[in-house]
Specification:
Layout (H helix, E strand, L loop, with lengths): L39 E4 L2 E4 L3 H35 L6 H14 L2 E10 L2 E12 L4 E16 L3 E14 L2 E8 L4 E8 L1 H17 E2 L2 E2 L1 H12 L5 H5 L4 H15 L2 H8 L2 E5 L2 E6 L3 H12 L6 H20 L6 E7 L2 E8 L3 E8 L8 H13 L1
Antiparallel strand pairs: 1-2, 3-4, 3-15, 4-5, 5-6, 6-7, 7-8, 9-10, 11-12, 12-13, 13-14, 14-15
Length: about 375
């Protein structure tokens, strides 16, 4: 018997998982047969199983949070690696080391992760394994999540809650589900994200066409952005406001600054330390200093006076807001071990989050558990 929470194989007569302690059930909620197909209702590419209106309300935020958070994160990491790696060649310093670690982690094509995010009394925990296949342009992933905390209801008052579920990506289908102990049924949501996956890999492969160590080829870059967004971008319209050649120089200067220890200390309160084989890079922005630096670096690239005035006034407003708002009281730390990402933490006035990476380049999927999830994905 395999644990639905962590995937550990246990004896058939075991009541609790020997690895994570979760209760084991003969029907652990992850297996669905062909006989269950008629339980699924298709609506706008989303699938659910015998779901009531109350169930939809309860799980809607969880589904949106996960779909909106995790999949875009994968895409952003891939594209950020592409853009930054292309322009960092002349400069070497803290930010280059961080981006090289991101690049090495992604290019390893497999890793496991654990994420914990805390917002006030609410806790969101996520763990799983990702396998990237650059040749096939494919992502395979599975894992589990837990949400817990305190809710307030007008009629019932304050009450504690806990939601547990599983998720995965297989053959371009993203699915998220949970086992409902009350009705003894799986409840599954699914979306076809094959286009998103394909776009991520294509962008990675084509990056050399529009980005190089000399900067951006804006004609090709605008064409790519238009393909991704469906919105036409006219270079002539952009150059009414910004000199793109100077902007390339400004971007290089910005990246040079991000690799300068003194600049980082003055603008981002940068600190570096080593502990147990891990190098930690910490950042806490000084918004007044950052605003001055941004103006110095990018002002020459702005050619329209009205746009320049608007940019400067907008920057002043952002700085004033940041200084008075706990949401902008940001601290971020990146940990690197053996040239790969080891962990990353982020916190501000309302959120604390930490993600840990392990088994980089050696992570493997539990084939038995994956097959259970594949059965679900094939029905979606």
């Amino acid at each position: 018997m395999f644990c639905n929470k962590c995937g550990k194989e246990n004896n058939e007569d075991s009541r609790f998982c020997s690895s994570c302690g979760a209760e084991l059930k003969k029907d652990n909620g992850t297996h669905i047969t062909e006989d269950d197909v008629d339980m699924f209702v298709f609506d706008d590419d989303t699938v659910n199983v015998n779901e009531t209106k109350a169930d939809k309300t309860e799980k809607k935020n969880s589904k949106k949070r996960f779909l909106c958070f995790f999949i875009p994160v994968i895409a952003v990491i891939l594209i950020a690696v592409i853009i930054v790696s292309a322009v960092i060649a002349p400069y070497y310093g803290p930010m280059t080391k961080i981006m090289k670690a991101v690049e090495k982690t992604v290019n390893a094509e497999s890793f496991s992760f654990k994420l914990k995010a805390t917002e006030d009394d609410d806790v969101f925990e996520l763990e799983g394994t990702i396998i990237l296949d650059f040749k096939k342009k494919d992502i395979t992933m599975y894992g589990t999540y837990t949400e817990s905390g305190t809710h307030y209801d007008y009629y019932d008052g304050e009450y504690e809650y806990i939601n547990e579920g599983y998720f995965g990506i297989y053959d371009g289908i993203f699915f998220e589900g949970y086992y409902d102990d009350d009705v003894h049924e799986d409840k599954v949501y699914g979306n076809d994200i094959s286009e998103v996956v394909e776009t991520c890999f294509e962008t990675y492969e084509e990056s050399g066409d529009y980005i190089s160590s000399k900067g951006f080829d804006y004609d090709k870059l605008f064409e790519k952005i238009s393909d991704l967004t469906g919105e036409d971008i006219d270079r002539d319209d952009v150059e009414e406001y910004v000199d793109l050649e100077i902007l390339n120089d400004s971007l290089k200067e910005a990246w040079k600054s991000l690799n300068n220890k003194k600049w980082l200390e003055e603008n981002l309160n940068y600190e570096k330390k080593r502990d147990d084989g891990v190098t930690y890079y910490s950042f806490e922005p000084d918004y007044d200093a950052l605003a001055r630096s941004a103006e110095e670096i990018f002002s020459d690239a702005i050619v329209d006076d009205d746009f320049k005035d608007l940019s400067e006034s907008g920057l002043d407003e952002i700085v004033d807001e940041a200084k008075d708002d706990d949401d902008f009281d940001i601290n971020a730390t990146i940990g690197i071990k053996k040239g790969c990402l080891h962990e990353a933490t982020f916190k501000n006035g309302w959120l604390k989050a930490k993600i840990e990476f392990s088994e980089v380049g050696s992570a493997k999927l539990n084939e038995k558990v994956l097959q259970e999830y594949v059965d679900i994905a094939r029905l979606i």
